[in-house]
Amino acid sequence: VAGVIVTTLLDVGKPSVFVQAARWRWLGAVSLAGFRLIPWLTDRMALPLRLAAPMNKMSSDEDMSHYFARDPLLGGMRIPSRFFRTMHSLKLTAIKTGCPLLLAHPGADAWTPTDLSRSTYELVQGSKQFRELTNGSHLPLESPAKQELYNEISLFLAAVIDGCD
């Protein structure tokens, strides 16, 4: 891997981030309690992603959000609760990528606000760049976020390619 490009970085090992990233805050809080008190039961459960995550906040385009919620490989995919429990059990103190990282975070992301990604970004050790896109929902298709994302990716890839020579 010569470089990593992300639009969101979440440390779901932090209870507050886990709860905020859930579709409903109460579901995040109940899930955390279940992970702690009855993992043998919660691990057996699986929810469609559209029930666990706020797919309606994926895009400012309602048709696009509806598509994501209903697609069998996205919102319709059943995710085992054990997956969420094991993600939550990871406690990050530092992230070592071993290659350059670009975080191009959408500025109007209603699902994962910039401050959530920024706090995780601060844990990254090594070469990294942060760019907050103007406007842009979780899936930044809006203008000017979409063009800014393309530009940032182009610049990043050019720098990575130059570094590989």
What's this model, at a glance?
With 165 residues, the chain is an alpha/beta fold. It is built from 8 helices and 7 strands.
Describe it for me?
- The mean pLDDT is 92.
- Helix 1 (15-21) crosses helix 2.
- The chain is an alpha/beta fold.
- Helix content is 45%, strand content 15%.
Order of helices and strands: EHHHEHHEHEEHEEH
Distance between the termini: 14 Å
| Percent of residues in beta strands | 15-25%
Mean pLDDT: 92
Judged by helices, strands and strand pairing, the structural class is alpha/beta
Q: Main β-sheet: number of strands, strand sense, barrel status? A: 3 strands, parallel
Residue stretches low in confidence (pLDDT < 50, at least 5 long) are none
Helical residues, percent: 40-55%
Strand order of the largest sheet: 1-5-7
The general outline is globular
- Specify the number of helices: 8
Record the SSE blueprint.
Blueprint: E1 4-6, H1 15-21, H2 25-37, H3 39-42, E2 46-48, H4 49-52, H5 62-70, E3 78-80, H6 81-89, E4 95-96, E5 101-106, H7 114-121, E6 124-125, E7 128-133, H8 145-164
Parallel strand pairs: 1-5, 4-6, 5-7
Antiparallel strand pairs: 2-3
Helix pairs in contact: 1-2
